[in-house]
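User: I'm new to structure prediction. If I give you an amino acid sequence, what do you actually give back? Let's try with this one:
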Amino acid sequence: EGRINTNNATAVLIYQDATKGWTSQDVTLALTPLTVDYLVVAGGGSGAYQHGGGGGAGGLRTSWPGGSGGGSASESSLNLAAATNYTVTIGAGGASKNGIGGNQSGNNGSNSVFSNIVSIGGGGGSSYATQTVPGNGGSGGGGGNQLSAAQAAGSGTSGQGYNGGVGGTSGPHYPSGGGGGAGSIGGAGSGSTTGGSGGSGKPVSITGSSVTYAGGGGSGTYQGGTPGAGGSGGGGAGVNTGNGTAGATNSGSGGGGVGTSAPSLTGAGGSGVVILRYPNAYTVTIGSGLTGTTATDGSDKVTTFTSGTGNIQFN
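Assistant: Good question. You get back a string of structure tokens that encode the predicted 3D arrangement of the chain. For your 315 residues, that looks like this:
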């Protein structure tokens, strides 16, 4: 007869020897550590209406080599426990604004979460009016054009993203600033003609292939000006007339601003994403309320969550 007691790291083997009677012996178990790398990108902010600044990208935090947003170093991997609940939330992009009613700032995006890692939603852009202000966020929204002075841009969050671009100071096309991105600051409104482009996104290869996330939205300009382009990674372009371009889904990118006062919709922010990489000895159980898919890359599994909120476990 015998018994093995375990604590998932060591075991005590108790056995009966014909000459020595009952004997115990420590046995080390060769378990695979549960070390999890992550990419957590929040939802991007939406663009503003009427000479509108671009939306800022959602915050980008990662433990994968290459660095987090805002020029910061990569963070530490997480050492987690099996059979334990961990929360995952995918942040929505900021909703677009309808231009009926005049000048309007964009909406901020929502936060994305994995365990204790929280990325902040991107800031909404600002418009041609002193009563509107750009949003602060993971990356900041673009500042509006106020003629007499360049409006300050929204601020990014340290370790997640950059500030937006400042607004312009003159007409006739009233350029505003582009939203900040995870890879660079948003472009400023230039002269009287050219809107600021969205800040660049940041490439991350946690899936095994390099993908760029979290670009800022471009600025709109008025009647014939040159609107700002969206930042790399899915940032929405600004427009003179019509609807602004939305940030790409599951990129965390900002939406584009709208230049004209004719009724239209600003570009919505792109939704965020959470990607986890862990040893293939484990399987992730995805709770209700979350949408996710798992692939294998070498000796690791990679699970990508694209919507919802809920708990997961590794087993």
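You can read the tokens as a compact description of the fold. Here is one thing that stands out. The CA atoms of residues 67 and 74 lie 4 Å apart.
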